[in-house]
Amino acid sequence: MSSRTTTKAANRAAWVFVILGAVTLGAVATVAQMGRVVPAALHKKPPVEATAQPQQADKAEAPKTEKVKTFRVGFTPDFTTESHVSDVPPGVDPKLFTLNDYLSQIKAVPQEARVQSVTVSDGVATIDFPPALRHGYGTEDEQMVVEGICRVMGQFPEVKWVKFTIDGQSVDTLGNIDLSRPLAVTR
User: Fold this and answer.
1) Which position among 24, 45, 172, 177 has the lowest Cβ density within 10 Å, counted as fewest Cβ atoms?
2) What is the pTM of this model?
3) What is the dihedral of CA 11, 16, 22, 23, to 10 degrees?
4) Is the pLDDT of residue 82 over 50?
């Protein structure tokens, strides 16, 4: 019985050496493959004309992603916001994107009251809303909407003032804040 146990142990050891040898041989072959010399013909660079066009095509296919600050409402006794940098989706106006992102956080603002358009002329950003903006707001909600929009627009250097419109018509107030004249942005 003891010779049988010794034979089994020797067979196991032989199999371990065979497997280790195969793994080692595979590793050596991989290292040898990686160190192989590349033929000189493959080192030649293509003519300049051939490389210029693909590089230009790459630039055209990868539009630059615009970044803006997006603001989060701080729910403290005083109105506060925190800003974070976000990527603007391709083809979307950065002003429209960041305004609607901000408004989406304020529960008092209905989904249907998102900004329709933003135009800037002579430093005044006219922000046009649908009629759903006349939802009726409490003093704090109105403050979050108006002051937050002034902060959001303050990140755009060409904007100095903000004017509110609903379907192209001037807005006098959303409740308590006088909106009959453009408001200064907050920087």
Assistant:
1) 45
2) 0.61
3) 170
4) yes
Considering the chain, what is the average pLDDT of its residues? 77
DSSP 41-78: GGGPPPPHHHHHHHHHHHHHHSPPPPEEEEEEEEESSS
Label residues 88-112 b or e (16+ Cβ within 10 Å = b). Answer: beeeeebbbbbbbbbbeeeeebeee
Identity of the residue numbered 47: P
For residue 32, give the H/E element and its range.
helix 2-34
* Most confident listed range (18-22, 141-145, 148-152, 159-163): 159-163
Integer Rg of the chain from CA: 33
CA distance 70 to 148: 11
Structure-token pair, residue 82: 């925190």
Question: Which residue, among 52, 104, 96, 105, has the nearest Cα to 75 in the 3D structure?
Answer: 105
Region label for 32, one of left (φ > 0), alpha (ψ between -120 and 50) or beta (otherwise): alpha
Which of these, 149, 112, 116, 115, lies nearest to 132 by C-alpha position? 112
pLDDT of 25 over the 90 cut: no
The continuous run of DSSP H or E covering 162 comes out as strand 161-166
Position 66 scores a pLDDT of 84
Show contacts of 48-52: CB within 8 Å, 24+ apart: none
